[in-house]
Amino acid sequence: MKIEEVKKLLEEDMNNVTSLNELNELKNKYLSKTGLITVLNSEIKNVPNEEKKEYGMKVNEVRNLFNEFYETKKAEYEEALLNEKLSKEAIDITLPSKRVKRGSKHPMTRITEQFEDLFVSMGYTVYEGPEIESDENCFQKLNLPKGHPARDAQDTFYLKDEYENFLLRSQTSTAQVRAMEDNKEKGPIRIVCPGKVYRRDEDATHSHQFMQIEGLVIDEGVSMADLKGTLETFCKRILGEKTNVRFRPSFFPFTEPSVEVDVTCFKCGGKGCPLCKQTGWIEVLGAGMVHPNVLEMSGYDSTKYQGFAFGTGMDRFAMFKYGIPDIRTIYGNDIRFIEEFDRKDDE
Ligand code: DAH
What we know:
The chain has helices at 3-16, 20-31, 36-42, 49-89, 107-121, 135-138, 174-182, 224-239, 292-297, 314-322, 327-330, 335-346, and strands at 125-126, 132-134, 166-168, 189-198, 209-219, 245-252, 255-264, 281-290, 306-313. By secondary structure, it is an alpha+beta fold. Residues 171, 173, 214, 252, 255, 286-288, 309-311 line the site of 3,4-dihydroxyphenylalanine.
């Protein structure tokens, strides 16, 4: 076929294209290996030398005609296809939405956050430690060597074989050791450590797993008066300003002197009721001045630094605050139970 004939045919074909498919067929017809323009091009070898240049230019003209047409049309068709797709997939935003079901915070999460907010506002840092602990951190460095009778009250779960020196921590007091060992300058510390602890215990008010929060302050010139002020503020903020606080002498191996802290009964306000066994008081905290042995074992100079520490069960507070009669429901994983607390926090 001559160049002019191909050009004419192409012009006719261009007028008849109606879709992207047809356009691609046209591309085949003209530009594939055996396409009309390709063939024209290969014929150049039969054209006399002096005409080759003009011949080539003419073939190019036809090719350009096709290419320009092809690109423009292709863009047009693709845009049309896209628009069609978009209009089909349009979302009707006037439809009423599906209700998204919101989760609820677990009561222990709520209480933990309240404790953390309070202590952070008093300049403490939240310092978390692992639940699997070494015997050393959980007991020995807290002045409870192997065989110490005070270990009996904190019998826990022990790991086996090559991990036999590890256990599930029975108290968050382990954080005291960790915080002191972490502090390379052996300088001041002010931390609280909330977290799960484990003991061999189970009844309505004791679970084999429960939550404590531990506090540790170390600095120069820290005294029992600081401890008392801190714990009074803490109890009043969490349980209400009317709460009275009472300190009783006690014993903990890692503090000297040690105290137990009672607060006026949340239920009867101190008059006496079954909850407080008619005494008007409820025990909530253990505390004391950090024992010099404990400071020294973790590298602190006990002639320069003093510290106070306290620890309390957070489940107790949650039970009183939210009126939960049985600690086991806290860990029962019943969604209906957890949902109750959205409402209670607003009351
Ligand atoms: N760890 C103690 C317990 O679980 C509570 C405790 C008592 C913590 C006195 C302290 C403390 O930091 O000074 O029974």
